[in-house]
Amino acid sequence: MSSSTDHQPVDSPLGLRQIPYHFSNDNADKSALELVEALDAEWKEAEGPVVFVRFTDGITNTLTKATKKRPGRTESEIDEEAVLIRAYGKGTDVLIDRERELRAHNLLANVGLAPPLLARFDNGIMYRFIQGDVCSPEDLRKPEVYRAVAKRLGQWHGSLPISAITSTPSLEAAQLDKHCGLKNGKHSRPMPNTWTVMQQWIDALPHGTEQERERNKMLDKELVWLSEKLGDTPGIIDGLNYIFGHCDLLSGNVIVQREPGSESSNGDTKKKEKTASFIDYEYATPSPAAFDIANHFAEWAGFDCDHTAVPTRSQRLEFMKSYVGSFRFHSISDNDNLAIDIDLHNDVVTLMQQVDLFRGVPGFYWGIWALIQATISQIDFDYATYADLRLGEYWSWKGEMDGSRTREGREMSVRERRWAEE
């Protein structure tokens, strides 16, 4: 592999520098060093070592933090110029629209909701580090954390335009019209959306055997049913049925900071208020708000799918109150005089019902995703078992929805029992 001096940045779309370089996981530190030195020659020339930390929270990409340990600087000052290097997993372009990801990140960075993008390279991107604590699934269940997540998610949904992550359907996408709400020759849903993404994933599944073809046909039928049942779920605001969804709010994508000097009293216990930021926008897609929220709740269970950990009704209610207040605050423009007429309680009740309806969809979504990953990923993770667990969540939900579980005398699943708890 040639030296970093051969990899001079050039301009690319969105004004982002393009470094012609392919990151190698076989020699990750060497690749990371050559990338940061191509990004900023001072990292090579200035005093102090370059230190790398590999993060392993994700199961799609590899993420490396690079820091320049300049003498005399504090850890916070060093972190301010730290660089994150995210190398895409092999074959993941079949799952992720990389140009849409960059447009999403660029918009979020421009409004202060994402770290600045620094450059892209052949198989990944580089961006600034966000100081704070990366959450674990256990952290997501803490009231001070999930209230912070709810407030930030309400800001996303209430203020971000979906125009940055939509496109005009092409002739090649004509088969996806059934998921774009085609009415009188026009689409009533944005393109892409939650349903078109899943359709593309199903279409990308292996189909070499009769068993695979039958499985794909069954998944396709289920998706049509879901799209027809839930695809026109109304938003809190009339006409805003689809919002700018993160669509991957697992614990590793939530960064929590503690606000200095800001305290709230809870009985005799005082806790610092926290703020949350979201990272990794690969799956950002126009979606119903209820899907994005239900998807986050599913992640309380972690990769181990500990279904005893999904939120109970009272936890979901507390989350929704923080979310709705933030959503309404951020969705009201300076010219909007209707704030005093907003019924936040009604919003919360409506959203609670919608999230209940969507609670099984994330299992379907990530189940299909895992079936694809099982065939393409080189990361050491049991995607096949994960697919079974996630699709199992969907079938358990559907068994409650259509009454088949009761009719057949089957026991309610752990996840469904937990979801029904007060």
Q: Could you explain how this protein is built, in words?
A:
This protein has helices at residues 28-39, 42-45, 75-80, 98-110, 137-140, 143-159, 194-204, 210-230, 289-298, 313-331, 344-358, 361-376, 383-401, 404-407, 414-420; strands at residues 10-12, 16-19, 50-55, 62-68, 83-87, 117-121, 124-128, 133-134, 182-183, 186-187, 243-245, 254-266, 269-278, 285-287. The protein has 422 residues and is an alpha+beta fold. It has two domains: 15-34 and 43-128, Phosphorylase Kinase, domain 1 (2-Layer Sandwich); 133-164 and 237-420, Alpha-Beta Complex (Aminoglycoside 3'-phosphotransferase, Chain: A, domain 2). A seven-stranded mixed beta sheet has the order 1-2-6-7-5-4-3, with helices on both faces. A three-stranded antiparallel beta sheet has the order 8-12-13. Strands 9-10 form a two-stranded antiparallel ribbon. The chain is globular, with a radius of gyration of 22 Å. Mean pLDDT is 89; it is low at 1-5 and 265-270. One of its GO terms (cellular component) is cytoplasm. It is an enzyme of class 2 (transferase).
